[in-house]
Amino acid sequence: MSSTNRTLVKAAGFLMLAQLVSRILGFFRETLIACFYSQSSATDAYNAAFILPDLLYWLLVGGVLSAAFIPVFSEYIAKGEEKEGWRVVSSVVNLIFLTLGLLIFIGLLFTPQFLRLMVPGFETIGNIGLTINLTRILLIQPLFMAVSGLIMGVLNSYKIFWPSALGTVLYNVCIIFFGTILANPAKPESISGFAVGVVVGAFASFAVQIPALRKVGVRYYPIIDWHNPGVRRIGTLAVPIIISYSLNQIQVAVSTNFGSLLPAGSITAVWQSYRLFQLPVGIFALAIAVATFPTMTEQAALKQWDKLRQTISSAIRMVVFITLPISVGMIVLRFPLIRVLFQHGYFTAQDTLNTAIALFYFALGISSQSVIQILPRAFYALQDTWTPVILGIIAMAVNILAMYLLIGPLAHGGLAFATSIAAFVNMILLLGMLRRRLGQMDGRAMFWTSVKSLVASLFMAGAIWVWSEWLTLLIGVRTLASLTVLATGTTIGVVVFAGMAKLLRMGEFTQAMGLVNSKIGKR
Fold first, then answer.
1. pLDDT tens digits for range 204-221
2. Predicted TM-score (pTM) of this structure
């Protein structure tokens, strides 16, 4: 292995470790909030308070970073044009900072009006005042997050990754620390301690990167050069991705708007289950999507269409093979899973039931949401960034319509089910458009992988259900008992699914086992 590859592998390993630690801390944070405040109007207010800050961040920063900032600045470094690259960086930083600062100031002034539009039901519940206060605290966060994200982009361009990875860990540590020391379950307004922790955590995430930034040599220019080709290229590349992120935030806002009309705690139940829904998507699907993207880009550039189709098909089949049993297993084991993670302190069995209802409907869409991590990147490889945006708008309309139709019969479960329906529609639309662009899409192989994975998952579900029902009757539903049910049920599920996959001669199982054996053999 070359020294460059060794460096990249070490960096990737450190980032994955930091991401794992951060996710564990994130769930510990959610467990603490549930323990102190249950599912209540206070937790609903806390979750709703993120709408405006998150919207501002993703509108101005998130898309710029992911789509344009890092590749453009990296190109300047590679060409030995660092001075010009820093002029581009300075222009983008100044433009974002000034625009974001202005929007935050406007947001602080008009927070009450914005929230009365977003969460009209909070007026009736009586927590609109708490939501306004929490939002105003959290509005400081996007400034630190923006600067932190831009510094991360600069350091990543120099192949320095550890400061931003450490920053994500510190972010959650600060939230946990301040939330815990300021928590008072008898006073719902004390949940503001977690909001304070968010702001301090954002500052810590920014501050921990400063030494590394000074080391690479900061060259700041107080300019905004609209005519600079690099600035214009960043803007052009970022626009469709910014729209995509904004669509997601709009759907979150609409879901929260509907949720505010439901009983107190409904928004919290949706958010808790949504984070569980995103876990396999973030760990498995995103990793596969990121790993295959450079290959897809190279094959598209060389017009190797058969290889490109095979790469896309292979990635989709592996994602379905991994996430479908996780989806089914999460449905069967959702009660012990939620009890272990959240049912402590003031979090009751009724709260567990509310979260389990939403998780059931979210889990139905895990595989669709996972495939969606791959398909837009296939369009990006074809240098088409607009088709996923247009199809995303259609999926958003489906989501909003489904929420409107389902919230009546299914309450907060309807909000979760609407997300799964929209993900499935988006997946089908993306597949259809990609098939039009590439012709054959190896559809038969993808279909049979899906069918075999579903059959194996259903057998697995039967085995888990019989075992977990018997064991629950035997040992009960307390935390340790639920952990035992969860651990043993998961083990049985893995064994049964693997056995069925081998019996059905699934190529994905052979690939997965080959990868595991190769990793073990290297040790």
1. 999 999 898 888 777 878
2. 0.85
